[in-house]
Amino acid sequence: MGKNNIMKIISHRGNINGRIEEAENRPDYIEDTIRLGYDVEIDVWIIEDTFYLGHNEPQYMVSLNWLNERKDNLWIHCKNIEAMEWFNSLYDTYNYFWHENDTAVLTSKGYIWSYINKFIKGGITVCPNYIQVPNYILGVCTDYPDLY
Question: In CATH, what number is assigned to the domain containing residue 41?
Fold first, then answer.
């Protein structure tokens, strides 16, 4: 599938040419990826009113200002209930979502966010590895956005 057939190409945790686990969700890694023109899916925790990035645990503290300056390029995966409650209190300021083992969820901006390699018409599919995707999906979240 050609790059022009996919409306949204989202970097998975800042990766652009494959997974670099030790860099994922690191603020400078995310910033570099945004500067390259990509949106980025990030993992956000809120612990005692402090924002953190990190997949399996809160690792990198970020400020509210940091999130605000990049909000138009972020797809925020809330990693704990506190994060979900906080983002939900702001209505549609951010594009955020929560999921665990769901096939698909809706983001706060009304996008369908589907599980790994589950293709839903008009949805965003998480495809960590590069694969051919059907042209009826809206986009992909991947560790290989440069290949799309």
Answer: 3.20.20.190
The Cα 131–Cα 142 span in angstroms is: 10
For 23, the domain range is 3-147
Cβ neighbours for 71, distance < 8 A, ≥ 6 positions apart: 93, 94, 95
- Nearest residue to 96 (alpha-carbon basis) of 113, 78, 69: 78
* Tokens at 101, concatenated: 């083992």
pLDDT in the model for residue 100: 86
Mean pLDDT, to the nearest integer, of 78-82? 97
Strands (E), the chain: 8-12, 39-47, 50-53, 60-62, 74-78, 96-97, 104-106, 112-114, 124-126, 139-142
Q: How far is residue 34 from each of residues 45, 79, 119, measured CA to CA in Å?
A: 20, 21, 25
Say which DSSP state 101 is in. S
Say whether pTM exceeds 0.70.
yes
> In the predicted model, is pLDDT for residue 6 greater than 70?
no
Q: How many domains does the chain have?
A: 1
How many Å apart are CA 82 and CA 78, to the nearest integer? 8
| 16 or 6, higher pLDDT | 16
